Queue: 2 jobs
Job 1
Amino acid sequence: MRRPRVSTDSTVPGAAHCTLASATASHSRRRSSPLIAQHKAAGDFTLIMTATNRYITAPIAERLGVDALIATDPEEIDGRFTGRISGVPNFQQGKVIRLAQWREDHPQTFEHVTFYSDSRNDLPLLEAADLAVAIDPDPVLKLEAEQRGWPIRSLRGG
């Protein structure tokens, strides 16, 4: 299977490492902060992708100090939420589409992309990353990670 790729042309000025993470309720800010800080200290660009809406996740992303957030955007008309989603839902293959849209607006080339997730729903992005890491994975993702030799980590602590 051909993996979709994030541009890895290291000849482009500003090439860097990019770390993407799927944000879920199971990964508390306290537990994920050291991992994000480690990537930030290494000079990595950090981005959270989540199916959860922006109004919930933007304050969390800001407190974590991540560089960018791609979240599901609720539709608003005349200052009121409609109950519908604006644009492509940031879920499963939609995350690949939303990342491509984001990259059109933020042209930057990354030498290496690491993606962390706990959900089988993120398989399309995990497959596109240079390094896929399963964090406290659901059973389907755990099996997939084991079969593919992806690292499996826990943020739950002892």
Job 2
Amino acid sequence: MNGNALVDAMLEKTGFTTDTALAKKLGVTRQTLYLVRREEQGFSPELAKKIAILLDEDPGNILMWMNAWTAKDKGTRDYWLKAAAGMVSAVIISLGSLPADSKQDSNLPSYTLCELIRIWIVDRFQLFTRVSYS
């Protein structure tokens, strides 16, 4: 996701029609959103958290995209974009390995993309982590 798409996604999610209204909700200036749109400025971990909550997105993805945007060289930018894409691919692979009949079982729990990624990582690397983003 690029900076412009990120700001547009937040506008759509909130129902706001202007960057000024969105900036006020996020507690930043319109200029900050302008620089994010142009991928000329990163943002604080606090703003990344607000964006992740607003978009129901994994904060890791938000920070990886930001790192890609603010990278000074193409190699570093490609590294962070690949890392963000890898998280999404991991979930798709994990979902594809579910038994065919379990996909339609209404008794199965419903997970967000962030939760599925976390479950996949914990399962694959046997890590135990308890994270709350709210």
